[in-house]
## 1
Amino acid sequence: MSFGSRNRARKYIYNVRRDVYNEENFQREHKRRPSSVNVDIHITTVRHRVQCRCSWRKFRRIVLMLFPFLNWVCVYRLRDWLLGDVLAGLNVGLIQIPQGLAIALLTRLLIPPLNVFYSTFCCSMLYVIFGTSHHVSVGSFFLVSALMAPVLQGIMFNSGNLLVGNFTKVNFTDPEFMQNYNQALSMMATLTFLTGAIQLLLGFFCLGFITKYLSETIMNAYLAATALHMMVSQLCYIFGFVIHFHTGPLAFFYNMLDYCIGLPKANSTSILLFLICLVTLRVNKCIKISFKGYPIEFPMEFILIHLSAETSKTVIEMIPSSFLNPAVPDMTLLNSVIVNAFSLAIVSYFLLIFVGRRFASFHNYNINCNQELIAIGLCNILSAFFQSFVFTCAIARTVIQEKSGGRQQFAALIGAVLMLLLVLKFDYLFYELPNAVLAGIILSNVLPLLGSVLDLPSLWKQDVYDFMIWIVTFVAVICLGLDIGLAVAMMFTFFIISVRSHRTKILILGQIPDTNIYRSFTDYKEVTHIPGLKIFQCCSSISFVNIGNFKRILLREVDLKALPLAEEEMRDLFYETESNSNSSRDFKCGCNCEEPEPPPRISFTERLKNRSQTDSSSSINLVHCSRYESGTPSWPRSESHTPGPGNLPLPRSSRAPVPQKEEVERIWIPSSQSGLTSEETPSDNQAFNSHDSKCVSKGTQEYSEDSYMPNIHTIILDFSMVHFVDLQASKTLRQICNAFHNIDVLVLISGCHPSVVRSFERNDFFDSGISKAQLFLSLHDAVLFAVARRYSKISEVSLEESSEIVQETYPEEEQVRHPYSSKGPGTGERRMQQRIIG
């Protein structure tokens, strides 16, 4: 059912009649469930039995978690998906063969082709069983494999020609050369094995959640930069000459410079073949084929791959065609490759996750990050025994598999079987492979990854922070490479998250007239200010990062500043509090049966002062010290906070008349005197001194004239958007509340989530300056209580005596107009009844 214009235009009315609740009263009247964090376990018997209950549902869930391929095998639509998976498998299987041969030319890691193909087949089978992505095709990716080349730089034999490729099969007949070649392959196998072991351990410890901190913006930027790296690497196929492929920082620009220098040696046939392939694939994208409602693209790659060219003959002549038997990696080399292995483990995993999440969002399914970590780790461990490359997501093959109509990993299964069959039975067909066509196929399929560049203008308008993350990630990956660029992108992302959490947005709220709705003054024009109240809304959680900014904004809006106490004042106050607490004990137990009382704490170490005042008088009497007790404060005795008779409605606007006292009594302390004086009469001073001990016992504090603030009597903090308050933030927040309490400004907190209240209880947040009775369930409850206290007939109202203070009632008349409307006759008037229960 749609939410039509009729429902939007209709007015709905609700009537409310209830007591104003604070957290203390609400918990007293409604039983709260015990927290699941602090559960006391009482053992009442000696013998206990552990019952292991197993059901078919639990067993099935465990099996599906261990073997994710059963999720799609059991629901596979044979008639709908089979044709698309077969066509996708044919394309992927044919592309794997020239890519496996060409990767040796790019990376200069001359691994026998049969080892690459066998490892690709076995790893594809493993990922089909343990992987959760429906479209990812695993294999060797040349940019990740190129990161393995620096490990071999320490093994310089044959004048370093292993990394340059200036040798042929004749060199492999030399026993010394073959021994060094096997040593290099052993180093690569150890590196691949350690990479897989690291990924497997990270998966077992469920550390795949780290990818959840990487947004779609960083994923798009990383894939766009990777696609640009891929395009640059294919230029050697397009121009028909080979360069020394650089890796590491600024390798992108070094490779571009080498291509520009070698342009006079470009092969016109390869360039023409590349252009023909590119145009053909572009036209093929315009051909739309659907089978039973599922889009399928014509397998043009299957036809183009059979075009003949002479560019692959050099590669096959360089690599030994004999198959090297699987071998156990040399574990003695683990210490020398651990840094490179960790870098490869992170890069290969994140590349797999980025591509998998991209296609998962396209087809509306989810992938398990931890399971993907385990799957790719198993693939790399198996690849190490074949002395092959580090495996990850093959981006070009994944795109081909998805756009050819592949729906599940059955397409990857067909492609792996087809590749192995062609290599073993029809290897002579691939002696001359069109590398220029292969470059055209790769460029045509990775070009859509650069589409996020066109979205930058809209990204700038939507979110500047995401725009900055995209730019930094893209530039870092282009300039520094896949590994260092990824680290820079992650660090910058966490920095942006910290900045956004530090720059907490705090709004000043006002009341919408004749409603219980409160909005920001910057958003709505009709918002009105309630005299004597300041309402602050914190729009994020509070932690040690942003509590300083929260305090600064709060003091700035009330035109106050915090001045730290002198060290002598703090020391004297601490000793005085300690001596008073010891002398007040009437009975002391000589044994150690009682728990030791914690040392006294200073509620706050700063005093609040008006910004316009410049007097730096002593503030020893402005500090309130208390022990860890659940004391309940009583409200200040100043009559300026309790003017006029009660039974007054809630003010509708700032223009509403506010009752004023004819005489306002201020108690102030001169900086040069320790006694108390009054501005009115000596009798007032004597009366105050006679009740001094009672006032101190109730928690009422003296305040000086420069810190007296008659315009604001209550500050309300709306914590409805706060999810947590950490330990350091709760300490600072308690000091802020005590500082305002010391200058006769009441601080109320509204809308606290139960988890926040529990954290306050665990962190010992409540004391004599801020109690649980000052926490209200809603913002309107806090406002009603503050106004009722302001206009109460009784000057001193304790929170413990106010279980029922304000009741808000509305007439139950059936009206077409909103009962809160103040226009026209027949409008329901709001009546606020104040009742003080003694």
## 2
Amino acid sequence: MNRLLSKLVNPSVRCLKCFMFTVIAGVILGFCAPLQAYTLQNLTQYVNPFCGTAGGGNAAFLYPGAVAPFGMVQWSPDTSQNPSGYQYSDTQVHGFSLTHGSGGGCNYGSDFSFMPILGTVNSSPYSSSNYSHLNTSYFANITGGSQHANPGYYSMQFNGITTELTATTRTGFGRFTYPSGNTASMLINLGGDTNGTINASIQINPGGNEISGWTQMSGMCGTAPGIMYFDVVFDHSFSSYGVWNGSTYYANGQTTTGASSGAAFSFNLSGGGVVLAHTALSSVSVANARANLAAESPGSSFNNNGFNAEVTAANNAWNAYLNEIQVSGGSAADTQTFYTMMYRTLLAPNVVSDVNGQYMGFDGSVHTLSGRTQYGWYSGWDIYRNECQFLAMIDPVRASDMAQSLVQDAADCGAMPRWADTFGDGGLMLGDCSTPIIGDMYAFGARSFDTASALADMKRAALTPNVQARNGTYERPNESSFLSLGYVPSGPTQGGYAPVCMTLEYCIDDYALAQFANAIGSTGDYLPSMQRAQNWRNLYNSSTGYIQMRDSNGAWSSGFPTYNGSAFADGDVYQYVWAVPFNLSSLFNSMGGASTALSRLNNFFTQINDSDTSNGQYAFMGNEPCAATPWIYTSLGQPYKASSTVRQIMTQLFNASSNGYPGNDDFGAESSWYVWAALGMYPAIPGSDVLVLHGPLFPQATLNLQHGTITITGSGASDSAPYVQSLSVNGQSSNASWIHFANFVNGGTLSYSMGASANTGWGTSSLPPSDTDGMTVTGIAGTHLIVNHANGLAIDNGSTTTQGAGVIQWGPNGGSAQKWTFTQNSDTSWNIVNQFSGQSLDVPGGSTTNGTQIIQWGANGGDNQRWWVDIQPSGSYKIWNKANSLALDDDNMTGNGSPLIQWTWNGGNNQLWNLQ
């Protein structure tokens, strides 16, 4: 037994980091959990794989079966047609399949379903009466106490049969114990996909005790379908066998192809006993599935001891990952919830490449990698908010492969995916999600990937309209409108929907792009990206105080659309108004100041899980748009309210039971939220390394990271003590409510004193950053001539003091009629006042009509007299109105006396202005 083997088998041994294939008790495992020089504790004992498996309106949709960290194989029971294929309250099981989704909101998987039965099969088990296409006579009743699960292991007893399952990354190992006195048999059903099997094929090799085949799977939520291959080898020969295709059964048949097909076989097993099964998956071929099986579950381990060793190895791999964060001092219930949530966080993204480096690319071609792993199953819109940061923090090497996988997807198919499964991008949800995912991972330590190509991919989608994957999916639907108008208008095309949400997501994407570009040294991309990020202002309706939809002419849509209508998706106007995480101070100013924003936030958190899909006015923490909203209290100068709100959400909405989630887990998004919350910090600004602090749940938490140890202590911390009394950072007293992760990547200490009563002054001396870069220029306060870049004419008031007089253009002469004084407002907009008349540059009546002439009017502070001034790459300025987002335009005229008009931004020289 070598040193690495002894460290993994003995959980008390202090361990070193490893990223290689690991051999344990003769079993080659397709994963190697990150290990650090610390003493491993038995933490898998706290994980409840049945957590989140209950049904209901806000179900988490999780499965309890055997899986390795980020594993390709999820060997788990099939009980019902829902997104995970399983529900804890179900009373019957009809198989144990190899594919399951981890908490998504749409059906997926339940392919390659194994069902142990008693007795021989003489007719087709097919039935059209249920989604599994299996006759209910083969279903088995689930009795209380018959199911057991630990990380990497699952078992169930029924009809005298005990089914036990474990898994490596790409393989499954099953042990089926049959009673005496009956014929031991098995069904493999290829027609049970919860979305409907498109096609399938199965092949029996009786001489090798082997069955193989493929299934053309339906995609999740409309994602791309694809073919997955499997191979399984049993340790017993077949006494009889056959295949079925629909209602036709072929006794002694060895192959068939059809959407409702499968194999039935009995074992040469007299007097009952154990049947072992080694199985594997591949997206490339049956041959690759066999290679995965040979590498990760070789024949030398094909015995009871081998099964037990693989269960132990899977447990040790999970335990090594869980030991990346060691918490202590909390209640038993909190400890169980914490490690269960951490376990769920480490299920996805999933490995999709085989042991030989091959994977099926999004272009439908086989690609081969060397020295790294390809990943799929990125629930992009969900996981960029807090999961990707966590994965990069605890395992930057694996996260680097995850980031590179998105870059590879773009190379394969022409665009980075918004929502990637094994076979392609289904274009689910909103935003260019790969951009903040990569930005998150880089910010939290994942650096070993092709950053130059990643930036090029990001920029191509951000700056080039109509970037499409080969399957026709747009990376940024309606990007042309976002670039030309500064927002996505009502009635979006290109398969887009919910234009308000789309606009806000693109703003977050461009913020993440700006941070990433700046971090890797491409500083010239920073400001233009930040300018696009500030486009959220174009949809802020100061008349209502909400971010709302408008048409391509700038007119606000009639009515007040709220939830999942034409304007929003998976949220409503009350929830999305807060979706400017990188520039909250400007949002507060738009609302009328911090006090108004605070009053609205207080009302918003009157309820914490309002899932009213018609007119919910409160927080819905069961869905991702509200994930960062509790920490807005901190940006408003009240960190103590963030602390109490986060703790309320944790204690009331999360636990380790089957009903332990407030909503869909969405491949770890909700789980990772809880883990961050329990640690007392949260990555509230996607694309940055900012962590907002609110105080820990546990008295002690040790983060055993790759480059150092972060120690978090919370004296007095408990469920009932959510408030920070004081904080020391690396031994120095701190009244700041946030930190940069970069300052802790090599280790550090956060020492809190916690209490049951609020210290309202803590954390108020330094609030989280609010980035106004790109929002408007600085350094232009004072008096200037405003000269058009195209025609060289200056903006002129016509030497009149008449209120309402039209503003014109004239050759520069330096007179007071051409001199305009810029004064900045608290929202960073500018009032522009003429020196001759003392009146303000004004949009008459706040008109939203292209071609309207600009006038002068006495200063009144209205939005129609407030102007955003953004510097452009040429060094000239874009000047555009806050009320309607239309830009000053020379009307393509060159003569003295030409009117100054407003027009939709197009970036032409006629809309660029120089200040002299």
